[in-house]
Amino acid sequence: MKIMNKILLAVFLVTAAAATGNAQKKNAKIDVAEALKGYFKPVTTPYATPDEKGFIRRWMMLEPISKPNSTNRVFTDTYTRENLSVEYFPGQYTVIPKDGDKVKVTMEYQPPVNLTSNRPTAPQGQQPKFVKATLTWHALDSDHFFVKLFRFATGLDKDRYGVIFWTVTVINCEEDIENVRLAVGSNKAARWWVNGEELLLLAGDRHMGVDSAVSDRITLHKGKNILRGVTMNGPGMSEFCARFIDDTGKPVRNFTITCN
Hints:
- The chain is of the alpha+beta class.
- It folds into two domains: about 1-35; about 40-260, no CATH class.
- Helix content is about 20%, strand content about 35%.
- It has three helices and 15 strands.
- The protein has helices spanning about 1-35, 75-85, 150-155; strands spanning about 40, 60, 65, 100-110, 130-140, 145-150, 165-175, 175-185, 190-195, 195-200, 215, 220, 225-235, 240-245, 255-260.
- The longest helix is centred in the N-terminal third of the chain and has 34 residues, at about 1-35.
- It is globular and about 55 Å long.
């Protein structure tokens, strides 16, 4: 009898722990949904499709990495490529993360931003101080055709200025789609890849315009194609929009979008 009671107690504790864990995950989802309301929704469906103008709204988004730039004027081609080539976390050019995955990064320490000036403070005349942090990936659908990185950061109460954002999504094709171009608009500097091939480098203190940067022709292959982008911002807003277009500028829409 005592043995049976111990077994029943053990089963009860395991079940209770599982229920508590599930409840915590559910509450975390609710918290994220509330924090990002009006700009993003947590992913709840197996796949998405491009919107009527071809824009991709489903993304895996990593919480921002601190990179304190007090001005956007530094975003030359050389500076952008150099600083967006730094390996902040293992597998950053290859990983296909899942919702809730965490990565450990080493990044520059950023003092609290004076929100009245909206300007990060970069160390002056001294070597930058580096800190370790754990950041989380979030599976999100954007409420708008553009992805509001600034609102993603502020909603989750993360650094919003002087930051780097990594984003990934998966384009699923039933057959090869030839002669398409990646078209991106970006508020501030960015780099973009498809299936590991860099297609676009967007430098300069720029503002987002639809299709402001367009790649050479590529083929989206049958099966999974990995679209990966990284955006760097100093002060001000940060956002992007991305889609595939054909040679006439019409949106390509005959694919589905998943997180992994």
